[in-house]
Amino acid sequence: MTLSEFDSFRPTKPGGRRRKDGKSARGRRGDYGDGSREMPMVPEPEFTSYYGRPVVKPAPWGDDVAIYLFLGGVAAGSALLGVGGQLTGRPTLRRNARLGALAAVSAGAVALVKDLGRPERFLNMLRTFKVTSPMSVGSWILSAFSAGAGVSAVAEIDRMSGHRLPLGPLRKVLQAVEGPAGVEAAVFAGPLAAYTAVLLGDTATPTWNAAHEELPFVFVSSACLASAGLAMVTTPVREAGPARNLALLGVVGDVVAMKVMEHRMDPIAAEPLRQGKAGTLLKWSERLAVAGGVGTLLGGRNRVVAAASGLALLAASALTRFGVFEAGLASAKDPRYTIEPQKNRLAARRAAGVTGDAITTGG
Amino acid sequence: MGQLSGPTDPTADAHWEHSHPRKGFFTDTSICIGCKACEVACKEWNHNPQDGDLELLGSSYDNTGALGASTWRHVAFIEQGQERIIEARESGRALVNLGMPRIGPPTSEPSPMDLAEADTTPPDTADFRWLMSSDVCKHCTHAGCLDVCPTGALFRTEFGTVVVQDDVCNGCGTCVAGCPFGVIERRSNGTVKVAASREEQHAKHPEVPNVGVAQKCTLCYDRLVADETPACAKACPTTSIKFGDHDDMVETARERVSALHAQGLTEARLYGANENDGVGGTGSVFLLLDEPEVYGLPPDPRVPTADLPRMYRRAGMAVAGMAAAAALAFLGGRA
User: Are residues B313 and B275 part of one domain?
Assistant: First the structure.
C-alpha cells in the first residue's frame, strides 16, 4: 500500500465484504471503477473472479426480444385455437383467433427486426438454413407460420369487410386456401412457441443454459394460457369453451413446469429466477396465472369474469417471458453464476474419477 | 452439419477441400511483461475504434477491462500475495497429480544451466507476484458463436479459425450469448478519437466501422492469407504470444509447462490444450499460473450446442404436449 499525503482525503474503506444474505462476496463487485478512491490491489483469499467482472457476455437484447417471446407465444396458441374453431365450427373463435395470431406475429416480427444491430439486413436471416442455429431454424418457422397466419387472417378481414378488399380474381384463390393456410399455421404453431426456449437454452448464459431441459415446457404452457386468455377477452363465452379448457391446461402446465425447472436446474444458476427484478416478475406471473386460472374455472362463463381472467393470463405470460429473460441477463452479468456452477460440475466429475475432460491440464 | 462436440479437425469438419494446417496462438503468461503492445498492434492493424472513456478502472494496470467488439486482445493484471501463491501452487500440483493422459513423447527436463530457460522464468518472489496475461478469442474447435449464427456471417476459415463477415452479419446478437468465454460482442458505438493537432488529416477518417455487427479477433485472417504472423504475435517483445501451427503450439505449451514444473513452479498449467474438453480444445492455448477464473476465464466451459440435439428433442416433446393440449381443449368435456 502506498502512503502519501493524499491518503487522509480518501474515504474509509468500505466495510465488511459480506453480503446481506450471509454468502461471501466473490470478487470485488461494485467497489471499483468509480475513480473516487484508490482500492487495495492485493486480492483477498476468497477472490475467485477477475475484479468481479462478468465471464460471459449477456445477449445484447433489449425488451423487444422479451416482447417477441410473449407475442410469438400468443400467435402460436391463437393459430391452434383458430384451426380448432375452423374444424369444430366456431366461426367467431376462428375469426378472433386468426386475427389475433396475425396481429401478434406481425408485432412480434417488428420487435425482432427492431432489435437487430442492422435492421436493414433482416432478410439475411433467411440467407441460409442452419440446424445448429436455433435463431435460423426459428426464422424459418416464423416465416412459415406467418404465411399461413397471414393468408387465413386476410380471408377473415375480407369476409368482415363484406368482400371489399381489392382482390379481384384472387378472392376465389384466397377462399380456397384459407382453410389449408389455417392448418399450415397450426402445424408451425407448436415449433413457434417452443423454439424460443431452445434459442435461450442454447447459449452460455448460465440461467438460460441450465434451464434448457424444462424451458420448452414452460414456454409452450405460457403460450397456451396467453392465447387462451386473448380468446377469452375477444370471444363471447358461448364459443370460448375450448379457450377456457386450454387456459386451464396452460396454467397447470406453466406452474408445474416452472417448479420442476427450478428444482432440476443447477441451484446456483436458478438463483436469478428468484432474486431481484426477475424474481419479482416471476412471482407475480405465477400469482396472475393462478388467479386467471381460478377465475376461468369458477367464472369463465360470465363474460366480465372471463375477460378479466383472460387479461390476467396475458399479463402472466408476459411476466413469465420478461422474468426468464431478465434472469438470464442478470446471470450473465454476475461472474458467480458462470464460475461456481462450472467449478462445482468440474469437481463433481473429478470426484467421480473423470479427469480427462477438463480445459485446464497439468501438462 | 458437422460434429457438435468432442475432438475433431475443425477445418475438415467444415468441409474445406484443401487442407491447411490449423493455426493458433500459444500465450505463455509466465513471460508476459504486461506491455500491452499486443493490444496496440491489434487495434492498429484492425482499425478498431476506442473502447470505453479512457477511465482508470481500479484493476491494477488493466484499464482496458475485457475483451469486446473493439478490444480483441486484453492484458489482464492480477496482484497476489503469498497465501494465494501457495494456493495456486497447490492447485497446480493437484492437476499434475490427477495423472492426466499425456499426448506425445515425454519431454526431457531442461538442464538447470540452460540460460535461455532461466531468463524467461518468473522471479520466484515468495510473498508477492504480479500475473499478466494477454487474453484473446479462443478460436474453439466447437465454437459456440459460429454454431448459433443464423446468417452464416461467422464461418470457419481454412486455417481452422472463426471469423465474422461484416457485410453478412445483421447484428442479431445470438453469438454474443453463445460464446462460453464472453469474447464476441456486438459493436454498439465507440468513437474514433482524433488528435486535436492533426484535425484536418484525421477529419477524413471514417466513422466507426461496422457498428451494429458482431466483432471479434479474426486471428488476423487478412495477414494469414498473405502468410504473415498476426499483429499481436508480431509485436510481442517477449514471445509470450507465439503463433504457429496448432499442433506445434500445443507441443510447445506442453514442453514449457513441464520445464516450469521441473523448476518447481507447479502453479503452471495449460488452458485449452485438451481436445476432450467442453469445446473440443481451443485454437488459442494458454499457460496460466493460477486457476482460470482468476484471469476471468471460465473454469469448465462447454459449447452450448453440444446439448442442442437434446434441446430439440425436449422442444419436440413440448410441441407434442401443446398440440395435445389444444386437441383436448376442443374435444374434451366441460366447454
Answer: no
The domain A63-334 having CATH identifier 1.10.443.10: the answer here is no
pTM here is: 0.87
CB contact under 8 A, B173 and A49: no
- 3-state SS string for A174-187: HHHHHHHHHHHHHH
B247 and B317 together in one domain? no
**Beta-strand relationship, B23-28 and B241-245:** antiparallel
Distance from CA of A164 to the nearest CA of B (A): 32
Is 80 exceeded by the pLDDT of residue A246? yes
Report the share of chain B in percent with pLDDT over 90.
66
| CA closest to B295 among chain A residues | A50
Q: Which among A6-15, B92-101, B128-137 has the top mean pLDDT? A: B128-137
CB < 8 Å from A in window 177-196 of B: 177-188
**Angstroms from B114 CA to nearest CA on chain A:** 21
- What is the predicted ipTM? 0.87
Cβ pair A59:B174 closer than 8 A: yes
Per DSSP, the three-state class of B295 is helix
CA distance A359 to chain B (A): 5
Pairing mode of beta strands B269-271, B241-245: unpaired
List beta partners, residue A18. Answer: A24
Q: Which domain holds residue B140?
A: 10-302
Inspect the interface and report whether the beta carbons of B296 and A335 lie closer than 8 Å: yes
